[in-house]
Amino acid sequence: MRFTKMHGIGNDYIYVNCFAEEIDNPAELAVKLSNRHKGIGGDGLILIGPSQKADVLMRIFNADGSQAEMCGNGIRCVAKYVYERRLAKSGGPFSPPGQAAFPDSLKIETLNGVLTVGLQLGPGKMVCSVCVNMSEPKLKPSEIPVKLSGDKIIDKPISIDGQQLRVSCVSMGNPHAVFFCENVDKVELVKTGPLIEKLSIFPNGANVHFVQVVNRGEIRMRTWERGSGITLACGTGACACVAAAFLTKRCERAVLVHLPGGDLEINFSGIDNCIYMTGPAVEVFEGDWKEK
């Protein structure tokens, strides 16, 4: 099986072209491939294949084999892979509200629907940056889902392991629990992350983020990703954190998000209420996987 290793600011996945490869056991394969000591190593497996609704379909499997609805850093890498390998034709310019237009675009089907991506090209017409319309953040508890009362869960006090915290819950196609703190470096993420991920109030689990506000245009965040553990970045999480920061009046709509693996530009549009994420996509290497 031919594979390609790619990452978006350190959030690394193994990508397989399912136009050419047939994968019968993606969940089991994701566990084997993602192992950083006995496999290729990565936060999960992403399959790129035919779609009846868009240019391509992306399917995401976490390092533990569970399937994810969406991956913000992953979709940027899928866009780069598809465009540079000519698996689909460009859909023409993409113009996010209030931002400069991107010369080329693609439509990618996910479990969160069909998303449009804009492509910024560098030397040799290689994709160097991708802007994704991540759609509107979902705030209703039933849409996240989270078993807490109210029309939306924004800065709501809860008790976790005897500690009083305030949580904001947002779905970007996948569930996110956002906590604001004074210093993200002091958070015991390896202890707190898995505890919150599997709380009974989250029927489908949750991606867990701790956020430090630098100023009204910048935040820092650290992530415990559902099904993968601590990751260097989470694109959907960055969108959820900016939505939570704006709704709690901590930040403006345009925010530079600093993650351990790098930075993302997040714009929460006041025109269409959609969140636009812009960041890099990097190809690391290609190889062949053969079971021994």
Question: In words, what does this structure look like?
Answer:
- The protein contains 4 helices and 18 strands.
- By secondary structure, the chain is α+β, with helices and mostly antiparallel strands.
- It is globular, with a radius of gyration of 18 Å.
- The protein folds into 2 domains: 2-133 and 279-288, Diaminopimelate Epimerase, Chain A, domain 1, CATH 3.10.310.10; 141-273, Diaminopimelate Epimerase, Chain A, domain 1 (Roll).
- The chain has an 18-stranded mixed β-sheet that branches.
- The relative contact order is 0.17.
Please tag this protein with its features.
single chain; 292 residues; alpha+beta; Diaminopimelate Epimerase, Chain A, domain 1; 2 domains; 18-stranded mixed beta sheet; 4 helices; 15% helix
Report a brief summary of the structure.
15% of the residues lie in helices and 40% in strands. It has 292 residues and is an alpha+beta fold.
Q: Which consecutive residue ranges, at least 5 long each, have pLDDT under 50?
A: none
Number of strands: 18
Helix segment tally: 4
Radius of gyration: 18 Å
Q: Tell me the number of structural domains.
A: 2
CATH superfamily of the largest domain: Diaminopimelate Epimerase, Chain A, domain 1
Backbone structural class:
alpha+beta
Reading off the top of the CATH hierarchy, the class of the largest domain is best stated as Alpha Beta
N-to-C order of helices and strands: EEHEEEHEEEEEEHEEEHEEEE
Largest sheet: 18 strands, mixed
Distance between the termini: 13 Å
Outline: globular
The helix content is 10-25%
Q: What is the annotated CATH architecture of the largest domain?
A: Roll
CATH fold-level topology of the largest domain:
Diaminopimelate Epimerase, Chain A, domain 1
Name the beta content range: 35-45%
What is the residue-averaged pLDDT? Answer: 97
